[in-house]
Description:
The chain is of the alpha/beta class. The chain has two domains: 8-382, Alkaline Phosphatase, subunit A; 386-450, Arylsulfatase, C-terminal domain. It has helices spanning 19-27, 55-62, 77-86, 120-126, 188-203, 251-276, 300-303, 318-321, 348-356, 370-374, 438-450; strands at 6-10, 13-17, 30-36, 65-71, 100-102, 108-110, 130-136, 155-159, 172-175, 178-181, 208-213, 282-288, 322-328, 337-339, 343-344, 385-389, 395-400, 403-408, 417-422. Strands 3, 4, 7, 8, 9, 10, 11, 12, 13, 14 and 15 form an eleven-stranded mixed sheet that branches. Strands 16-17-18-19 form a four-stranded antiparallel sheet, covered by helices on one side. Strand 9 and strand 10 (178-181) form a beta hairpin. Mean pLDDT is 94; it is low at 1-6, 8-15 and 17-22.
Amino acid sequence: MKNVYKIIPLGGLALFLTPERLEAQESLPNVIFIMADDLGIGDLGCYGQQKIKTPAIDKLAANGMRFTQHYTGSTVSAPSRCSLLTGKHTGNSYIRGNKDQKSANGETYDLSLPKEEVTVADIFKKKNYVTACIGKWGLGGPDTEGHPNRHGFDYFFGYLGQLNAHSYYPSFLWENDNRIMLNKEVYSHDLVMQKALDFVEKNSGSPFFIYLTPTIPHAELIVPEGELGNYEDQFCETPYIGNHYCSQPKPRATYAAMVSRLDKDIQRIMDLLEEKGIADNTIVIFTSDNGAHKEGGHDPAFFNSNGPFRGIKRDLYDGGIRTPFVVHWPAKIGKEKVSYHVSAFWDFMPTVCEIVGERKPSGSDGISYLPALTGEGQQANHDYLYWEFHEEGGKRAILKDQWKLIELFVNNPEKRRYELYNLNSDPGEIADVTGQYPDKLEELKPILGNARSKNPNWNFKEN
């Protein structure tokens, strides 16, 4: 029998796969990583939400695995996304906060991810995946080292900069290096989701990775006119008078409608995977980049957006960093699975490496959670998790054996203080027990300083 070769077009080149490599290639799973923007862990039905309907995401959880203690990379957007893509916590990642940077044309974008940083997309490219980032990027503007096309992504569509992503009717979006003019006439979320569906349609015949980052439900709170759906007049409303964000007469109904709109679009993705016959061997992950926001008129207390946890976006309490994390992979994960494994965004990189059979890059802080997903092999655990945040006087936190130590006002020695919580007995971080457990406090304090490496853009004032 003659050897059969498959030709895969790749960026204008032809990639020839032998029968042996073709068999390995076709067994690799597709991966769709969906990251909502500022969605709280309590905003989903599968995590206890009562007012907002999220049947598609709830179905993913019912037919897959729901993590109960998964943490974001940070409590705001850019560092959280950097942590996810590079496998480093904010003590070692290059981007540790939201930091503006002017582009050559004077527009404001975000601090650029350096060219030497390895991303999960770079790992997928080693296995000849077709890769896309669709939605919000926030790690570098046009003509910089931080552009997604320079970090392993074959295709990009969406917002390069976070400031532009504050509007759902933007003047323009980017498609690779091309500025697509929209003239504030198109609801960006709908276009982003259509581009994701188009990508699946075009690439269903070969392994693909989509980093899908819709901006819903980040403020501003807005949906196309007449599309509040069943939430119209359902809630008692206090109109929001806008300044940075648009005014919104019905912020509660609008927030709920935005979350449900995202949920319906996720169902469209799942329906397309089924239609293409690739649902069983496609890993679909759903999460959020940080805790719920309180901007643009959103009332997280009304919706219980942070669930039973204290804090919201910009806090290092669990309400700011504990995130929904749902994994759907019928080929490997059974139905109605719940994982209590303590994990974080920087674990995605080593998990991807283990799935595709690549070595974890040096410098990664993550641990693969593949054993937790599949039930095969021994699941390793973190010695500790670490976060740092450079706003509001500087904050650091560490989680070790369910003991959570938070350091506040790091940059102000006169105001600096510590708070200690035991999440086993106090998951809501209500009772600060620094006075009752001084030995535990002294045990954990040195880790806060030792967990981080120096970075010229992110400094703390040390004693």
